[in-house]
From TrEMBL:
Pfam families: AsnC_trans_reg, HTH_AsnC-type. One of its GO terms (molecular function) is sequence-specific DNA binding. This is AsnC family transcriptional regulator. It comes from Streptomyces malaysiensis. Keywords: DNA-binding, Transcription, Transcription regulation. GO terms for biological process: response to amino acid. Residues 2-43, 179-216 form the HTH asnC-type domain.
Length: 320
């Protein structure tokens, strides 16, 4: 179980993945050495990672939720294969081992799209069905997580830790080879030092510092904390595919975003038009959540629940 310092540290890192440990220590009332030790322990013993990620729309990509059904004996291998692809994240085995669910960042260029996960999955042996749902509007997720809503920090403490607000990207940003090298390094370790990032890009540390600040303020890159929900006391995870009356979709999505159980919520294409990823302490707690806050959503017509058995790949490029 985590103590108040560790929970505060995780919330601080979700607010700003590259926040100085000296500032975190000042906010939490402990030394920066204590913060550094706690982070090292969470990283080494619990697999916590700060991950640099790119907003898909900032680089001309589309985000898709993909459900893949296959013969039972192929599920594990398929999940591992999908996890190795650079364009996938949050690859998990769900529905009692009957399907694999993942997020895919797809390119919009038609010629390049021929080799993507979306185009190749239907032709994969032992795959019995694929459904792809484009994310049209995210209500919660990305740089926000349950740590943002459920951590121990006060609003004043959160304000002290918050980085400058990023601009909203209105069109694709052209990235150089050095930019891509920087982003790849940050995807492996969002807290990598400027010396390490300079080595990865071939830039000077001064150039790395300046360019990273530009990418953050320009709404291209953000930081997320990859943490096992069980570490936070949530042992039961599920994906919810909700069908909501179109006129109530925005209100239902905004309500979902406020639920402490929700880690991601978005309007999507498909038979259902709203998706949410949720974490609860127990199966009983999930039942109470479904029959309480979810049932009370405006315009709700139906809900399909797909329990997650195991996450093979989270936000980090590495496979769990």
């Amino acid at each position: 179980m985590l103590d108040a310092v560790e929970r505060g540290l995780l919330q601080a890192l979700q607010i700003d993945g590259r926040v100085a440990f000296s500032l975190v220590g000042a906010v939490l009332g402990v030394s920066d050495q204590t913060v550094a030790r706690r982070y090292a322990r969470l990283r080494n013993e619990a697999g916590v990672r700060v991950v640099g990620a790119v907003w898909p729309e900032a680089v001309g990509r589309q985000l898709w939720l993909v459900r893949v059904r296959c013969v039972p004996e192929a599920v594990e291998g398929l999940a591992r294969a999908l996890a190795k692809r650079a364009e996938t994240s949050w690859v998990q085995i769900a529905s009692g081992g009957a399907e694999v669910l993942c997020m895919v960042q797809a390119v919009t260029d038609t010629s390049a799209a021929e080799s993507t996960v979306l185009s190749r999955l239907p032709r994969t042996p032992r795959v019995t069905g694929v459904s792809a749902h484009r994310v049209l509007h995210p209500f919660f997720g990305g740089s926000e997580s349950p740590l943002t809503k459920n951590g121990p920090l006060t609003a004043e403490q959160c304000a002290q830790l918050s980085p400058p607000a990023a601009k909203r990207v209105t069109g694709p940003v052209e990235l150089t080879a050095e930019d891509n090298a920087l982003l790849e390094a940050l995807a492996l370790d969002g807290r990598a030092g400027f010396r390490s990032l300079a080595w990865a890009t071939g830039w000077s540390q001064t150039t790395v510092r300046r360019r990273l600040a530009e990418l953050r303020s320009g709404g291209v890159v953000y930081f997320d904390v990859d943490v096992d929900p069980a570490l936070l006391g949530s042992w039961t995870s599920a994906g919810l595919w909700l069908t909501v009356a179109p006129g109530e979709l925005a209100a239902a999505g905004e309500a979902l975003a406020e639920h402490p159980q929700v880690s991601f919520a978005a309007a999507t294409t498909g038979v259902s038009n709203l998706y949410a990823s949720v974490q609860c302490p127990t199966g009983t707690a999930l039942y109470e959540y479904l029959t309480g806050p979810v049932a009370a959503l405006p315009g709700l017509l139906s809900v399909e629940t797909a329990p997650s058995m195991r996450v093979v790949k989270g936000a980090s490029p590495s496979v769990g």
